[in-house]
Amino acid sequence: MDDLYLRQLPDDLQALVRGIEQQGGIVVQVEVEPARGGTVACHVDEHGATLLVSREEFFQPASVMHELLHVRRFLVDGVPQIVVNDDFNDWTPELESGLTNLDNGLEHLIIVPEEIFRFPGRREYWAGVMTRKFEEIRVNPLVPDDRRRHALVNWLFTHHVLMEGPQILAADSLVDELGLRQQADAFRDAMIPALAMKEEAVRRCFERLNIPFAAAALKYIDSRARRSRAVALEPAT
């Protein structure tokens, strides 16, 4: 990572960057995209990792750590990403974005607790995110299956990550309104024990959310060899 950005980070996050670069055989790049506003994002592929920021001086350690944890999981830990299966004939842009968002949501079940442990003030940030999410799920013109899926995934995040506060009440209120309380409890009981194994967590998620397995693949990235491979997602045998 360029020193312009690295020196804006505390020592432990500088060490995180160096560890990712050494173990992944990459240099973490940073690109400025003014249109991003106040958000930070990351892009990873077989060629490496790039953090996307709105301006050079907007390099907030908590947000950067969040993206670095994504990078570490995909490029160092070998955790797969959910992608569209190339052999699936009913591809749509909505399917691709939906699978990307679902993958992000599952990753957050692992990443955000670590983020909050390092930066306790981020709990308030994520509480705000959840408050907005639940209102969007309630009022946006979603088809019933999508409303159900969004409600269950965000309910799980709130209970697993935030664990307390008014967002728990908001999450419970939403699933009760939608008649999903038993499904939410069953989703949590299925997902939490599987979080350490991404492949199994994805299978359980697809099964509980009634997403066709044929639509998705798991993409593994080997950044040292500069290659990736996608494996069709299949139910457990």
Describe this structure in words.
With 237 residues, this protein is α+β, with helices and mostly antiparallel strands. It has 2 domains: 3-76; 81-232, no CATH class. It is 56% helix and 14% strand. The protein is built from 9 helices and 6 strands; from the N terminus they run H-H-E-E-E-H-E-H-H-H-H-H-H-E-E. It has helices at residues 3-6, 11-24, 61-76, 93-118, 122-139, 144-162, 166-177, 181-191, 198-209; strands at 29-32, 41-45, 48-53, 81-84, 216-222, 227-232. A 3-stranded mixed sheet has the order 1-3-2, covered by helices on one side. Strand 5 and strand 6 form a beta hairpin. It is globular and about 50 Å long.
Assembly context of the chains = single chain
Work out the helix count. Answer: 9
Supply Rg. 18 Å
SSE pattern, N- to C-terminal: HHEEEHEHHHHHHEE
Q: Outline the low-pLDDT stretches.
A: none
- Strand percentage lies at 5-15%
Measured between the Cα atoms of the first and last residue, the distance is 43 Å
Strand order of the largest sheet: 1-3-2
> What is the count of distinct domains?
2
Q: Approximately how much helix is present in the residues?
A: 55-70%
Secondary structure: number of strands: 6
Structural class: alpha+beta
What does the largest sheet look like? 3 strands, mixed
Basic shape? globular
Q: Roughly what is the average pLDDT, rounded to an integer?
A: 96
